[in-house]
Amino acid sequence: MPDDLKVIALKLDQITEVQQASADKLSDVRERLYDPDEGIFARMKDMTSWAEQHEQSDADRHNQIMTWTAEHEKDDDALRKTVTQMADTMKPLVAAHKVHVERKKWTDKIVWLVLSIIITALVPVIWHLVTMDIPAAHSK
After folding, report:
1. Of 7, 11, 41, 138, whose CB count within 10 A is highest?
2. How far apart are alpha carbons 56 and 96 in whole angstroms?
3. Whole domain around residue 42: which residue ranges?
């Protein structure tokens, strides 16, 4: 039984490491999205304000937007790759969690079974002690 606890503790440590790695990657994704200078939302805001400020023909705007999109396509690919890696990282974590939950179910069942047996064995003993005739104390 102690070996099982060591295995569970080891798995929990591994899960913690995977969660930390996932959190780091998620932080990287958030930074790429929300960074006020280089984030995707900031770049889109810059492009929108730029388009509003310049009155150019639709063809010129289209060409500039396509150029900007081509320049930043690598960033989008990197972001897509990071999200895919996070999903791949989470698969073993989910599988380990399922195993842990199943083990916990069986452990709970065994604990309740043992407690039921102990209580069933103690109830008759306690009942016998409670109902046992106690001789009256001798008076002086």
Report:
1. 11
2. 57
3. 2-131
